[in-house]
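Extended Data, panel c. Modelled sequence:
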Amino acid sequence: MAILDISIINVAVPTIQNEFGANTSDAQWVVTAYSLAEGVVVPVSAWLGDRLGLSRIYNFALLGFAGGSALCGLAWSLQSLVIFRLLQGFLGGVLPATTMTILLRIVPRDRLGAAVGLYGLGAMVAPAIGPALGGYLVEYVNWRLIFFINIPIGILGAVAALLVLPTFSGRPGRRLDVLGFVTVASAMFALLLALSKAEDWHWTSYRILGLIAYGVLSLALFVVIEVAVQDPLLDLRVFRYRVFTHSLLLTVGMVAVLFAGLFYVPQFLQQVQGLGALDAGLTLLPPALVMGLLMPITGRVADRIGPRVPAVVGLTIATLGTYLLHTINVDTPREHVVWYLIVQYIGLGIGLMPISSAGLAVIPPTLVNAASAFTNVIQRAAGALGVAVFTAIVTTQRAQLMNGRAALLPENTPIPHLSAATPRWLDVYAVYQQTDLQVYADAISNLFLIATAIGAVTVLGALFLRPPSSHE
């Protein structure tokens, strides 16, 4: 539910913009506010779990998220909606990290692969389901239902947690590392804001460069503080476990590849092939269901034979699917795009969970809170970084290809005559528009070629993945 709300809102932004009479830049803050709030609160989730108890903070976050969703659905202006999205994001950011920590506490290590596979249904499948569900609600019901559907889910989830979850012992006397929290929270805020707004504010603008510089320096200061303090906010000792660090690096690459498809396939279908938001979202649904079906199964297989083989096989298939996406063009049938995505998602469904479970399995119980927080922070950052960098690449490619096409266009290029009633400049614009669509399709095609290279690097990295028993 918490992760679904990252992607489900995207298709509703134009409708929200029209209802509140806002411009596109202001309306995008509905999306950005949630991501920024999540990035700020995830690092402190480990401390909250220790201080208040995992079960208590989990229930509080569930009910609070449902309440924040209700407020979003009742928003009377764009400003109120952005404020309520911040509240929703603060509570939504606590849920994934806390859930993973609870999972690591209650599941035996020899069955962790299957459990992480179930966890992956939310972490990886939800972003793919979001556009289809959001598109349906916006097109056929009302955009406010995007938020209202969280209310019964949150209430039922909290009741189930009260009945099922055990009580976890915490550290009630643990002090908050204020300096560590300020540095890492402000760093995440600055970096996520820079990545979210890089396209609007331009990568070379003073605002973006300043935010990136501040974020990097704050992260460096955070590391210095965490090494020096007696009770750190996030224990950096988790990175002493090589398998955990290795798994995070592989996850960064594959999450970036996943989000490239999640973001640009709907863009391609809508802007190049003219599909509606719902139809574009439905294109991602069959691949997401296939990936969701495979994750728990692959997790069990990894528990039996180890993570290396399924990781290498899965990432190889995912890289092949990404390469197939490189072949799309203006005339590619939608069915072909679906099958290319299915190939990619089969690979991700096979490869991602063994990698995650292998890294988490080596972490001792005293460090599971920090490991969960780091895993969620890095996944969010990888997704945001992937989309931002790929967007910059597509924008640059589009401009270069358009200039090249214009320079190569012969002087005697035939101009279609639309009708006797249309002015001549509209006939010329038709040629420009057709060329622009072809250029945009080529830019996205080149993007997937770059993503293929990233996938190939992760395959090589997976060859060196050690089994969890190595404890290194």
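Residues 136 and 278 are 6 Å apart (CA to CA). This feature is highlighted in the accompanying rendering.
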